[in-house]
Amino acid sequence: MTARARSFGAAAQEYDRLRPAPVPEALRDLVPSTDAAVLDLAAGTGLLSRSLAAVGVTDVVAVEPDDAMRAVLSARSPGARVLAGTAEDIPLPDASVDAVLAASAWHWFDPDAATAEIARVLRPGGVLGLLWSFADPDVDWVAELRRIGRADQQGSAPIVRSGFAVELPPGAPFGPGTSRVFRRSTWMAAEDVAGMLGTYSSVLTLPADERAEVAERARDLIARRVGTDPVLVPFATAVWRAVRASE
Ligand SMILES: C[S@@+](CC[C@H](N)C(=O)[O-])C[C@H]1O[C@@H](n2cnc3c(N)ncnc32)[C@H](O)[C@@H]1O
C-alpha cells in the first residue's frame, strides 16, 4: 500500500466524525435483501457498515487493513464482525457473500488482484457495489473548496474525472456495470467543513503547517462565499454496480 493509502489512520476519529456517510437511497440497489451477507471492504471506521445496519442489513462483515481505523470501527459499531485484511487478500471463504461493497476505496486497490479476490468471495449473481461519497463539485464554492483540499491530485481524482465509469480488468467474471448518482445536503458547522478537508489523503500527507494553511483557507472561503454558520453542504454518492456472473 502507498503512503497515501495508509494515511487515514492518523485522523481516524476526525474521519469518522466528519466524512459523509453514503446517501441512504444509494444502498437500495446494492443489497439484494436485508438478510443478505454483505462484505464492507476497506471499511475504514465503519461509515458504510453503520449505514447498512441503519437500513436493516444484519449480516455485515467489515474488512479493513488499518489498525487505527479498525479500532474506531469496533468501538462505534458494537457487535460488528470486523476482520483485518486487504482487498487483494480477503479473509473470507469462496462464494460466501451476496454483496461486496467498497466505499471511497476502489481507487486504492490493485484492480487485478482485488477483482480476482472479490469474484472469489462473491456468490454467482452477487453484487459488486463501488461507492464514492463527496461534497458536490457541481456547486461553485464546493469546487473551490475541493481545490483548496487538493482533491484534484491522485487518490480518487482519476475516477472522479472519468465520471465514476469503473473498468474491471478484461475477462473479469462480471456483467456490465451501471452508474448512478444520489444527492443530499447536510448542515455542518463551518469549522467542521474545514476539518473535513483534513481527513483526505491529499491533505493528511502534507506537513503540519500546510495542513493548517488548508484549514485556514477553507474557513476564509466559507466566510466569503457562503457566509453562514452552520453551512448547508451539498453531498453526493456515486455508485457503480455490476453482478457476478455464474461460472
Ligand atoms: C477513504 S477511506 C474509506 C473508508 C470507508 N470505506 C468509508 O467509506 O469511510 C479508504 C480506506 O481504504 C483502506 N485501504 C487502503 N488500501 C486498501 C487495500 N488495498 N485493501 C483494503 N483497504 C484498503 C484504508 O485503510 C482506508 O480505511
How would you summarize the topology of this molecule?
Elements (H helix, E strand, L loop, with lengths): L11 H7 L18 E5 L5 H8 L4 E5 L3 H10 L4 E3 L13 E7 L7 H11 E14 L4 H9 L8 H5 L16 E11 L1 H8 L3 H4 L3 H18 L5 E13 L4
Parallel strand pairs: 1-2, 1-4, 2-3, 4-5
Antiparallel strand pairs: 5-7, 6-7
Helix pairs in contact: 5-9, 7-9
Bound molecules: S-adenosylmethionine.
The site of S-adenosylmethionine (SAM) has 21 residues, from helix 2.
The largest sheet is: 7 strands, mixed
CATH topology of one domain: Rossmann fold
Helix share of residues? 25-40%
Number of strands: 7
In one word, what is the shape? globular
Question: Which class do the helix and strand fractions yield?
Answer: alpha/beta
The end-to-end span amounts to: 31 Å
The poorly predicted ranges are: none
Radius of gyration: 18 Å
* CATH homology superfamily of one domain: Vaccinia Virus protein VP39
Task: Note down, in words, how this protein is organized.
- The protein has 247 residues and is an alpha/beta fold.
- The protein has a domain at 8-136 and 157-185 and 235-243: Vaccinia Virus protein VP39 (Rossmann fold, 3-Layer(aba) Sandwich).
- It contains nine helices and seven strands; from the N terminus they run αβαβαββαβααβαααβ.
- Strands 3-2-1-4-5-7-6 form a seven-stranded mixed β-sheet, sandwiched between helices.
- The radius of gyration is 18 Å and the shape is globular.
- The model has no long low-confidence stretch (mean pLDDT 95).
- The chain binds S-adenosylmethionine.
- Residues 1, 5, 8, 19, 42-44, 47-48, 64-66, 69, 86-88, 103-105, 108-109 line the site of S-adenosylmethionine (SAM).
